[in-house]
Amino acid sequence: MKTAIVILNWNGKKLLEQFLPSVVNFSCEDAQVYVADNASTDGSIAFIKQYFSSVKIVRNTENGGYAKGYNDALQHINADIYCLVNSDIEVTENWLTPVIDTFEKEPDTAIIQPKILDFKDKTKFEYAGAAGGFIDAFGYPYCRGRLFNDLETDNGQFNDTTEIFWASGACFFIRSKVFHQLNGFDEDFFAHQEEIDLCWRAKNSGHTIKYVGASTVYHVGGATLDTLNPKKTFLNFRNSLLNLVKNLPLFKLLPIIFFRLVLDGLAGVKFLLEGKPKHLFAILKAHFSFYAHLPIFLKKRKKLPKESNYALYTSIVWQYYARRRKKFEDLR
Description:
The protein is of the alpha/beta class.
């Protein structure tokens, strides 16, 4: 099974210096490593050519973000499996083997995520993906091992292989034929939650998404856009709403969108009380951008199949803030 590891880069020379060696050292026998470059100007390309001659380079003509960057690059890469890896990921020895074995044994499995731990504290799960993602009753994404900003310690509780709802874009394996059948990432997202949209479309088309805990990587998180950056707040809130419009069945769409708008308003008040007015304005900006994109996404949803059983039927907001449940295993 031909595997391509593809690292998207934009002016990330320092990250490549730090993290590319582990990818090359622990992957080259089993896969071809690529760097897809989004028109960097910091000497990234020269660095790769000088020190990593085995790494192939795909040059994009512009910085189109995560979604367009990968869509453009993967048109030029021939492989059975694409492994999309953030430039701030450290991989471990034999990390590919359990994932590729799962693809080979399970033809219906289209997307896989490994265990993602925190590079800065390797005993903890990492925010962006942890042990696999889910969607709650109101469309909020959360993870096994991570509820909001609470990160669990890795005690082997998620060493399993299990079905999940979405896989993290920080380290995202997908069959190439499925990626292209689904027309790749939605470029209107630009960045953040486009992998959730792709997974949602994959599930609505009958594909299975798995988490494989026998494979481990470490993620810095926030290396390209810090969690405290209001732009990240804007993208997360807007793209979450766009995901709902695009992928929810009709009978759930209107009530869930209504409740989400109310809950987003409460989140804005919380940011204001915490002395973070820029994040409040980011939510307001996200809603205006959502309304502007609404006609486009209503057209998109008409072309897509829908499934009704998309979620665990719980509110993660209620569970976390009202019931004080801070671990995945405590959710009801």
